[in-house]
């Protein structure tokens, strides 16, 4: 009814759901995997290598990589790995960092924020994002603790929607 031409599957589980309509309706599919899910779960200590879950998700990812019209990842390293292993050319990298050539710090805004949060001239480290398994928050705290030894007037600010327990 909506004349959908492309199915966008954001992640392996979504691709599992989206693959049936791709076949049945003869549509193209973008496999927006961002990263290798099974490997990430092993790295996070959630799965063991060669566990049943690891094997199933790895096999599914391989299948979707071979059958998607486009693949989306977040690093050039993953792109190179996938391109080499599967001979793919249809891979787009969407980096998750800021291009400082396009986005310049605004000194007026920075001063206003410093005043609003009573930072004065203190050196601020700001952590913005999720907390939990993959985000290395405890390492950020360790980094800040080392930094604070040199910069006694520093402050560590956390901006997150995650629960305090996740920290």
Describe the structure.
By secondary structure, the protein is of the alpha/beta class. Helices cover 43% and strands 19% of the residues. The chain contains six helices and six strands, in the order βαβααβαβαβαβ. The strands form two sheets. Strands 1-2-3-4 form a four-stranded parallel β-sheet, with helices on one face. A two-stranded parallel sheet has the order 5-6. Helix 6 links the parallel strand 5 (123-128) and strand 6 (154-159). Helix 1 crosses helix 3 (52-67) and helix 2 (37-43) runs antiparallel to helix 3. The protein starts with 5 loop residues before the first strand and ends in an 8-residue tail after the last strand.
Low-confidence blocks of residues: none
What is the tally of helical segments?
Answer: 6
How would a crystallographer describe the biggest sheet? Answer: 4 strands, parallel
What does the radius of gyration come to? 21 Å
Helix content: 40-55%
**Number of DSSP strands?**
6
Shape: elongated
Based on secondary structure, the structural category is alpha/beta
Arithmetic mean pLDDT: 86
Keywords, separated by commas or semicolons:
167 residues, alpha/beta, four-stranded parallel sheet, two-stranded parallel sheet, 6 helices, elongated
Topology:
Blueprint: E1 6-10, H1 12-24, E2 28-34, H2 37-43, H3 52-67, E3 70-73, H4 76-86, E4 91-93, H5 107-116, E5 123-128, H6 137-150, E6 154-159
Task: Write a short abstract of this structure.
This protein is of the alpha/beta class. The chain contains six helices and six strands, in the order E-H-E-H-H-E-H-E-H-E-H-E.
């Amino acid at each position: 009814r909506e004349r959908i031409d492309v199915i966008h599957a954001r992640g392996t589980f979504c691709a599992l759901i989206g693959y049936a309509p791709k076949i049945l309706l003869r549509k193209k599919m973008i496999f927006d995997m961002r990263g290798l899910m099974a490997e990430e779960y092993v790295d996070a200590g959630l799965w063991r290598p060669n566990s049943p879950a690891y094997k199933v998700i790895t096999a599914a990812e391989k299948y979707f990589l071979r059958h998607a019209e486009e693949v989306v990842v977040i690093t050039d390293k993953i792109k190179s790995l996938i391109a080499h292993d599967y001979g793919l050319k249809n891979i787009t990298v969407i980096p998750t960092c800021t291009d400082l050539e396009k986005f310049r710090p605004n000194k007026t805004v920075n001063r206003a924020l410093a005043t609003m949060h009573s930072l004065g001239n203190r050196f601020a480290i700001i952590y913005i994002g999720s907390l939990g398994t993959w985000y290395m928050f405890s390492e950020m705290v360790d980094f800040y603790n080392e930094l604070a030894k040199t910069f006694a007037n520093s402050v560590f600010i956390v901006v997150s929607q995650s629960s305090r327990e996740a920290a």
